[in-house]
Task: structure prediction
Amino acid sequence: MRERTIASHFARAVLGGAQRRGYDYSGLLQQLGISPELLDEPRARIPPEQFTRLIQGLWLALDDEYLGFGQGVSKPGSFAMMCHAVIHCRNLDKALHRGLMFYSLFPDAPRLTLAREDEMIRLSLDDSHLWDPEHFLTESLLVIWHRFASWLIGQRIRLEHATFSYPRPEHGAEYELLFSCPLEFSAQQSSLLFHSRYLDMPLLQDERTLKQFLERSPADLLSRPDDGHSLSSQLRRLLSRDRSPWPDLEAVAAHLHISPQTLRRHLREENTSFQELKDQLRRDIAIYHLGRNDLPLQQIAEQLGFSEPSAFHRAFKKWTGLTPGAYRARDL
Result:
C-alpha cells in the first residue's frame, strides 16, 4: 500500500476557487464524506481517491479545469483534447511543444514555456496573473506536466531543481513529496529543471492506453504517489513491501548495505527521519483501512505494529488531530 494520503490543506485550497465563484460546495462535501471537522484540522489527511473525486466534482460544478484560479476558464475536456493532440508525436520533445502550443491558443491560459540551459531543460510557468492565493494551480500545473511527460515515455523524469516565485508556504513540507528534488522559493519564476536527454525519448503510449489514462486524469496525476529517487522514497517502497514485523532502522540499514549512522545522516539531509517515514506510512495505511471499513480497529492496530488499540488511538490522533473513530464515521 504505497498510496500517499493528501494533506487537508489541499482540499481547503481547492475549495477556494469554488468559494470565489460563489459555489456552495457543502452538498458535494457531504456526498464525498468530507466533514468540516476534517477540513479544519491542519494535520488531517484524506485518501487520494477521495481527493480525486473532489476535484472531478468541482470541475463539473464550475465548468472549469482551472477550478476558478485562472484568468479565464478551461472547459472540461481541454486537457483530454491536448492529450489526443500529442499522443502520436514521435518523441517527448515534439509532444511537449505541441501540448504547450495547444494551450497557447487560449489567450487567458497560464503561460508555460520550455527553454534549454546547456544540457538541461527548464519548464517555466508564468503565474504572475493567476488568482491563486494558496498556489494550488501553480503546484497543479507543474506536477501535472511533469507526471504527464513521465507517463508519455514510460519512466519517471528525474527533476534536478524546482523553483517557485513565492516564499515557502506553510505547507512547504508537502513539496518534498510533490517534486522530490532540491527546492528554491522566492525565485524569479516558477519552474522545473530536468535533463534534455528525456526529450529524445519516444512516446510509449497510444490511443488505447490514453483512454485508460484519461478516465481519472489529470486529477489522478495530483493524487498518485511520485516514485522519486530520494532515499525517503526508496524506504517507503521498502517498508510498504516488508512490514511483518515492521523492520527497525538497523535491519533497513543492513538491507541497504550501509551503516545505521549513514542512514540517519542521509535522512537528515532530506529533512526527515526513519521514525517519521515509518509513522507517515502507518498513518496512510490506517486511513486507507478506516475509509474502507474493512478491518476492526484492533486488527488495524496489530497490522501497524501496536500491541494495544489504545496506543494506536493515541498515535493516530497525534498524526492527524482526529481519532480513528472520527475518520471511520461515515458522516465525516
